Amino acid sequence: MPQPMLVAAAAIINDKGQVLIARRPAGVDQAGLWELPGGKLAPYETGFQALKREIGEELGIEVLKARPLIRVRHSYSNKTVLLDVWKVLEFAGEPWGREGQPIRWVAVDDLVNYTFPAANKPIIKAVELPEEYLITGAFKDTQDALNRLNKALEQGVKLVQLRAHQLNAESYRELAQAFLGPCQSAGAKLMLNAAPELLNQVDADGIHLTAARLAQYDQRPVPVDKWLAASCHDAESITQAENIRADFITLSPVLKTPSHPKAQALGWHDFNNLTDNSKLPVYALGGMDKKQLDRIFGLGGQGLAGITQYWS
Ligand SMILES: Nc1nc2c([nH]c(=O)n2[C@H]2C[C@H](O)[C@@H](COP(=O)(O)OP(=O)(O)OP(=O)(O)O)O2)c(=O)[nH]1
Ligand SMILES: [Mg+2]
């Protein structure tokens, strides 16, 4: 593999939740496309140092607080880049295009309407996705499931996977239908852990494939305007998820968990290796709680999945 060009880039979010994008000038690589501001690492710079310098040079603001968002390696015909993308949480000053480049604050949901370089597809997804992915646990009946869902939504959950393998297809469909309203009202996305065809009957936001379902496809089984996620456990399943153009994955079990006592845990080291080699946003799953979020970000993860504390 050729040595990639190292690039630091920033997802700068303002207090309205909008993201700052800039337009690449004519005559440079990827000319005319929109990008996240940033640029090449100078020799001996860390990603964060380069981020601070590039953002100062290009936008005239000072980055005060940032955390890793995603790292993506991508090969263009003429070069390979390794984009080290940070989420900027605090900055000083008012950004302007210091190099004459047009800049724009864009709502996260509008990012799909702008054309970015090919490497940015998973990066834009990482910007859109929240830090936590709720996977439903046990429940007594429909009302109990809805009560638990509403409690989780009240606590700010924005991404929900309805996982209920104990239900038959019809009961699952009914429950999925019942989940739609509360999720929509709370501005949360609903992923169905079910066959992709169910999207024809239930207008949820996407499908989450089990590892077994993931292995069955050789192309993306859901339309591009829906989300596709998959459960991965190793490098092979991650490659498979990338091949069928999934949008994000869960990787498990990171730590030992009572729900899957026989499964061998990956541990943090392997979690890091696998996320490093994955293009897609990766949620850590298995034995996770909110206290581990900073560690997950540092190791290349999008956030954590499971969060049984929201479902108890
Ligand atoms: N900044 C930025 N670069 C991106 C993005 N997506 C993407 O593929 N790239 C590629 C395009 C370029 O080949 C490379 C970044 O180089 P750059 O042109 O921003 O570098 P720079 O700011 O240091 O500029 P210069 O030294 O060439 O003046 O990474 C993105 O979202 N932001
Ligand atoms: Mg630049």
From TrEMBL:
<keyword id="KW-0227">DNA damage</keyword>
<dbReference type="Pfam" id="PF14815">
    <property type="entry name" value="NUDIX_4"/>
</dbReference>
<keyword id="KW-0515">Mutator protein</keyword>
<dbReference type="InterPro" id="IPR047127">
    <property type="entry name" value="MutT-like"/>
</dbReference>
<dbReference type="InterPro" id="IPR003561">
    <property type="entry name" value="Mutator_MutT"/>
</dbReference>
<comment type="similarity">
    <text>Belongs to the Nudix hydrolase family.</text>
</comment>
<keyword id="KW-0235">DNA replication</keyword>
<keyword id="KW-0378">Hydrolase</keyword>
<dbReference type="Pfam" id="PF02581">
    <property type="entry name" value="TMP-TENI"/>
</dbReference>
<feature type="domain" description="Nudix hydrolase">
    <location>
        <begin position="3"/>
        <end position="131"/>
    </location>
</feature>
<protein>
    <recommendedName>
        <fullName>8-oxo-dGTP diphosphatase</fullName>
        <ecNumber>3.6.1.55</ecNumber>
    </recommendedName>
</protein>
<keyword id="KW-0460">Magnesium</keyword>
<dbReference type="InterPro" id="IPR015797">
    <property type="entry name" value="NUDIX_hydrolase-like_dom_sf"/>
</dbReference>
<dbReference type="InterPro" id="IPR036206">
    <property type="entry name" value="ThiamineP_synth_sf"/>
</dbReference>
<dbReference type="InterPro" id="IPR022998">
    <property type="entry name" value="ThiamineP_synth_TenI"/>
</dbReference>
<dbReference type="InterPro" id="IPR029119">
    <property type="entry name" value="MutY_C"/>
</dbReference>
<dbReference type="InterPro" id="IPR000086">
    <property type="entry name" value="NUDIX_hydrolase_dom"/>
</dbReference>
<keyword id="KW-0479">Metal-binding</keyword>
<dbReference type="InterPro" id="IPR020084">
    <property type="entry name" value="NUDIX_hydrolase_CS"/>
</dbReference>
<keyword id="KW-0234">DNA repair</keyword>
<dbReference type="InterPro" id="IPR013785">
    <property type="entry name" value="Aldolase_TIM"/>
</dbReference>
